[in-house]
Amino acid sequence: MFLRNAVVIHLVMALLCPMLTHAAEQPVEVQGLPFSNGFVFDIPFDGLQQGTAPYDLTRSHDEKTIEQFVTVKQERFVLTGSDKEIRFWGTNLCYTACFPPHDVSDRLAKRLASLGINIVRFHHMDQRRYPGGIWDRDAAVATTPAYRDVNPEHNFVHAKLDAEALDRMDYLIAQLKRRGIRVNLNLKVSREYGTADGFPATGEDQMIPRRGRGVDMFLPAVIEAQKRYARMILEHVNAYTGMSYAQDPVVAMLEINNENGLVYGWNLGMLDRLPKSWHEALVEQWNQWLQERYHTTAALEKAWGLSLQNQGDGNLLQQAQVKHGLRLSSAKASIDNGEQSGEVESADENRDVMRILVEDKKMSDWRVRYRWTNLELTAAESYVLRLSIRANRQQKLRLTFRRSDDSRKTFRPSHYMDVSEQWQAFEIPFTTPTDLLGNTSQILLGMGYAGLAVEFRDVLLQPSRPTGLMHGEGIDENQQVPWPNKSDLAARNSAFQTDAMAFLRESEIDYWLQMKRFLRDELGCKATVTGTAAGHTTPQIAAASVDFVDTHRYWGGPKFERSRYNRSQWTMKHLAMVNHPATSTIARMSTRRVFGMPFTITEYNHPQPQDYAAEGFPIMAVWGAYQGWQGIFQFAYSHNRQSIEQHGLSGSFFDLSGNPVQLALMPACSTIFRQGAVAKAQGQQAGFVSLEDQLAGQLVRGFPRLVEAVAYDGGVADNAWMTSAIGLARTPQQANGTSSTSMQQPVTWTGHDQQAGRICFTGDQAAGLIGFVKDHPLDLGWIKLVPGNTSLNGFAVVMINAVDGQKLGRAGRYLITAVTRCANRDMGWDDQHTTLGTNWGSLPTYAEAVPLQVKLSPQTADVQLYPLNANGSRRAMVVMKQQQYELQTGMHTLWYELVLNTGKP
User: Fold this and answer.
1) 417-439 mean pLDDT
2) Alpha carbon distance 839, 39 (integer Å)
3) Could you tell me which of 887, 463, 586 has the C-alpha nearest to residue 898?
4) Which residue among 87, 142, 235, 360 is least enclosed by CB atoms within 10 Å?
């Protein structure tokens, strides 16, 4: 407490003594931090002080245009009645943060507007009853279970919205509108479809995907449930604006179904074990699709061929070059490849059985794997793996099919087997990729679960002849073609597979179009509409069905040991993205953009407590402006109403509401992106991927979020994004490549090959450095900014923005932002610096500044420089010596205001 009071007293004295310089300050050293000269920099909950440099930097008069609707004009969002482009720098509110008390809403809207936010995404409102969500607090909870892995509290009757939840949301949106901030309303995000609403329960071997993913795109009853909820929200009249959300221009965007897709769901195996009635609905739609395409069984047989029994010869695992055995990753296991162990039937006495006992205490299948490698498989051929297996308990085991070269790429989706104490025979078909070379294949059986004993026998790998139409199958009267599980599709021939992929793709497009028509035609919504994030759908599906393409991306987030979001068991790598451009988020996201449509990223973060997290949003702002994207949203501002007004890092990986470094970066980042302070790339590279190749990608690519076909698949070079705007073309005629004619790029990314990556950007009204920038000056001629060393080997973010709309070097105010990182005292990092479990240390959170030399040219005169308080107000002016300012970390600020009274003409 004494240390925090010392900081407060220091700030008060600076305000009372405006002529006091910082040269004589004696900063108090805070113990328990990974850096020296830590200080508290808490931006007020009601925002920045009006008239200050960071406040004025973000003012773009959005309040004057808030009654104009946002619409789409080719690749841009524009305001109706004009051709004025509007770009969005946004954030997310989730769960209870969408329903704060009125006084909190007043302060929140002021704070967000002052920091440069001009849109807020309302997310995860639909999962819970109030106060946890928007549904009626008195909604009846089911007495029968819904399905596995679903919180029983989420299985309630979804018939009515809660009056207080609506009132709080209405008031918050009215306050946002008053401040010129628009909203993105998410419709289906995380509600469940349970027995309380009359949906089926699951049998013992059945599964409904969590949050209804996949199934909510083809089941009519589930789609109708989504429409009812959308109607409740969008026809509701906000008591504080007098307008329904369908008609209010404050609603700039609608998102139909978060992180969802039919192709995505199928690829994850979500559709393989549905309740009987839901599976029958899928089979019925599949056969209807075939009927409309082929009309008769004879035509279908001609297209697919009538298949013989699937059979191969030999055992490829007995080839001389094949190696097999245990592969351990920091784990313990024993192997018995001889006598039987355990009780077995007498008929098995003479059969070889492999027995493996896992002695490791951790629970990850990859820690103990049995591997068959150096497999001599032929490219573009079909095979089948057969084996019998049992274990000492029920357990889900995974088979991975991948290349054994350095890429380690999978060439078949992982196959999961539910094993038990009884012997079971499994048959897993697969097809090899067209570019497979020689003996570069391997199969791995993961079993790294503590105390697990696994026995397997009769392991056989054979060539396979895939089938088309089986005897008895058809589309004539009293005939049917079964819908294949994901694990069974490889047993069918390419004609069957292509049709199955086309059915999924077209069914998904039909769903998005149906929902979009409902929103526009029945509800009269004026907002722009997107479906879901590319990566869960494909960019081409989005281009065929919605107004703009959206995606989500994160860098370096926590990896959870056992279950998702277990806050006590996670690890994190501290990798600076500036050192990894080839695998950066920019490299992947850029390829999902479709030319001719706006492109947004509605979820982005470098989650806390990464050491290098400060790089994330500056990189996004700079490269987003350079690529010509239209919207970037932080994920998230807050996940609960309590953390909306809580300073510091308090145990959330994603919430930024209390992060002093991320908040201090927001005015500069918002302005760089929204006002295009970095010029768009002059060159453009557009790739085209044919429908045939898209369908092939849906089938072969194993990782579900990579079923998409992106610009790289269409011929765009891997590093083209560094010098050109890249994306996908809708037609082969639109695919092109134009190069920049400029000798000087506004953005450069260098030094990464020496693990000292840095980004330098310059524009008419902003410039900066991101990364390992020690002793790498930002030289603009009239001014030179030279960063010094930091606790992260010179890693820092330094930016300068023109506050008054002037070009760099001309008279006016400038905001200098200089940050490194933040931390709590005594954070409980382990020896490897990979996890702190739940020990986030003690508040308050302290920031680390950047030592900075500000050198002015001899021609630059009549200058003042002020360190700024966390509300943006000035402290005592710094004394310039020999055309140079020495800004030390002991000044305890992340912002400086430079006033240039006489600039260059």
Assistant:
1) 86
2) 21
3) 887
4) 235
